[in-house]
Write a structure and sequence with these properties.
heterodimer, A: 496 residues, alpha/beta, Amidase signature (AS) enzymes, 11-stranded mixed beta sheet, 15 helices, 11 strands, globular, B: 95 residues, mainly alpha, two-stranded antiparallel sheet, 3 helices, 4% strand
Chain lengths: 496, 95
């Protein structure tokens, strides 16, 4: 079985469809890898041994019956804020610690219909609020490239699972960078599609105007396959876009000839220090070498992205999380009257970061502050989206760092605002609803560290530009092959 | 805008009981965050329309016809407390 867990989704699907390996064999290899490394990675909150074997047997039966499935037998990790019928879905929170989903998210259902096998539900910052997975109330996830460092977040468990070869693909959700930053930290493709391209039905809401599901994968081709499988209109999500999904896999390209790539003047990488500055300058030079014409573009209001985001996202979160009140599901802390029951349940059930965001959001929406905070942030959002429209008049794609540093050590960001700064480069795209991804672009050994850590290049396209975005990332990946230069450092038991 | 926040009042609105220690800690952290978001005041947004959602979308409507939904037992099975076919909650109106 050696080697199976190294294979990507495209390769596994080809072999399972071709009959040279069964979905059951692939699943057993994935579960064995989980058993071997999970004590160190902590990627999963729930491992679905029984369900995985049952689904795999079903995939094998479909293939024997003559069906060809785009993701036949591909082991999948699902972030634990997405529902899967009959499985615990916790959001990394004590308030949902024992909640079992009674229905399945559309994105998950589509991945299973395409042949994926669900291996388990992955750890996350509580309710997807964070950039390191340290805000989970239910477990610690470690970076497979250095176990002393965070995997990023909030989709840190999904990123760790794919990086540690526990699965070939994972689903994450991205509100301000929660797929792209862990993708960068864990040497993966982390891809957030256009807002509305993937249904949010069954994704437990954090900030509904920003939340978007997307894949984490070890290759661009695998991310494109996942994107094709999960995208498209869903009547169960009124914000999902009713417009055909253009093929992405056939749009993968080998060069960037004829493309203009914008470098954002305001995202000056010099402020990241000499080494990171050099790494990103080299990445831009590599894009140029592939035939892209590099152009200087400006996003004058991008610097206001964080301030805008940290009003809009908490405002939406304070509204969305009001449903967790101890009445219908989840934790309840008893009290003599209903008011005290609400207050004690929410005090016991939510962790500090969730409480902070609910409080700031409640404040921003409260009488007397609504116009000054919430409405002003919505207007700033208009300006940020307009900046991108103007920039895309001069370029086809925008390139930037995916994060301002490589994966950091646990407890390194003790004050909340320093953690919020992690999403500086990813938030503006989220506010503008744009498709963006992180692709490995180099390695750096952080001061005081021993292991080289991966860096991510963020590429961003106009709305619905996924085929171009994935196509360009594929050309960059194939020309540079940074991802394969170092293996995860999980100790002797990792199977190659 | 203001860099002060009445944490006790906001927590009451948000239905979260806070300890005195949390009131102090969150108060300081949220005041710090508000000083950062105050930067938005620098932007001239007077003539700018607010954006609630970026991707253009019209009112989405569907036929108002019955369709299967979760059955009552499935839903009530995870209720913290139930009574027959209902969710049971503590007293709402004081005696």
């Amino acid at each position: 079985m050696s080697g199976i867990v190294e294979r990507g989704a495209a390769e596994i699907a080809r072999e399972v469809n071709g009959g040279t390996i069964s979905a059951i064999e692939v699943t057993e290899a994935a579960l064995a890898q989980v058993d071997a490394v999970e004590a160190r990675t902590g990627a999963f909150l729930t491992v679905l041994h029984e369900l995985a074997r049952k689904v795999a047997a079903g995939v094998d039966a479909r293939v024997r019956g003559g069906e060809r499935l785009p993701l036949a037998g591909v082991p999948l990790a699902v972030k634990d804020n997405m529902c899967l019928t009959g499985t615990r879905t916790t959001c990394g929170s004590k308030i949902l610690e024992h909640w079992v989903a009674p229905y399945t998210a559309t994105a998950v259902a589509r991945m299973l219909a395409a042949g994926c096998v669900p291996i388990g539900k992955t750890n996350l910052d509580e309710f997807a609020m964070g950039s390191s997975c340290e805000n989970s109330a239910l477990g610690i996830t470690r970076n497979p490239y250095d176990l002393e460092r965070v995997p990023g977040g909030s989709s840190g468990g999904s990123a760790a699972a794919v990086a540690a070869r526990e699965t070939a693909l994972a689903l994450g959700s991205d509100t301000g960078g929660s797929i792209r930053e862990p993708g960068a930290f864990c040497n993966l493709i982390g891809f957030k599609p256009t807002y509305g391209r993937v249904s949010r039905y069954g994704l437990i809401a954090f900030a509904s105007s920003l939340d978007q599901i997307g894949p984490l994968a070890r290759t661009v081709e695998d991310a494109a396959l996942a994107y094709e499988a999960m995208s498209g209109h869903d009547p169960m999500d009124a914000t999902s876009i009713d417009r055909p999904v253009e093929p992405a896999v056939t749009a993968l390209r080998e060069d960037l000839r004829g493309l203009r790539v914008g470098i954002v003047r305001e995202f000056d990488t010099e402020k990241l220090g000499t080494e990171l500055d050099a790494a990103y300058r080299r990445a831009y030079a590599e894009l140029e070498k592939l035939g892209a014409r590099m152009v200087d573009v400006s996003l004058p209001t991008a610097d206001y992205g964080l301030a805008t985001y940290y009003l809009i996202a908490p405002a939406e979160c304070s509204s969305n999380l009001s449903r967790f009140d101890g009445v219908r599901y989840g934790l309840r802390v008893d009290a003599p009257d209903v008011q005290a029951m609400y207050e004690r349940t929410r005090a016991a059930g939510f962790g500090p970061e969730v409480k902070r965001r609910i409080l700031i959001g409640t404040h921003a929406l409260s009488s007397g502050y609504y116009d000054a905070y919430y409405v002003r942030a919505q207007k700033a959002r208009t300006l940020i989206a307009r900046d991108f429209e103007n920039a895309f008049a001069d370029c086809d794609l925008i390139a930037s760092p995916a994060a301002s540093c490589p994966a950091f050590r646990f407890n390194a960001k003790s004050d909340p605002y320093s953690m919020y700064l992690m999403d500086y480069y990813t938030i503006p795209m989220s506010l503008a609803g744009l498709p963006a991804l992180s692709v490995p672009c180099g390695w750096i050994t952080p001061a005081g560290g021993t292991n080289p850590m991966p860096l991510g290049l963020q590429l961003c396209a106009p709305l619905f530009g996924e085929p171009l975005l994935l196509g360009a990332a594929h050309a960059y990946e194939r020309a540079t092959m940074y991802a394969s230069r170092h293996a995860p450092q999980l100790g002797g038991e990792v199977r190659a | 805008m203001s860099d002060t926040i009445d944490v006790r009042y906001v927590a009451k609105l948000a239905r979260i009981a806070l300890t005195d220690e949390e009131v102090d800690r969150f108060g300081a952290q949220l005041a710090d965050l508000l000083t950062h978001v105050d930067a938005l005041a620098e932007l001239d947004t007077n003539a700018i329309a607010a954006t609630a959602q970026v991707v253009e979308s019209r009112n989405v409507q569907r036929a108002d016809s019955p369709a299967p939904c979760l059955d009552r037992e499935t839903v009530l099975a995870q209720a913290p407390q139930r009574q027959g076919g209902f969710f049971r909650v503590p007293r709402i109106i004081a005696e």
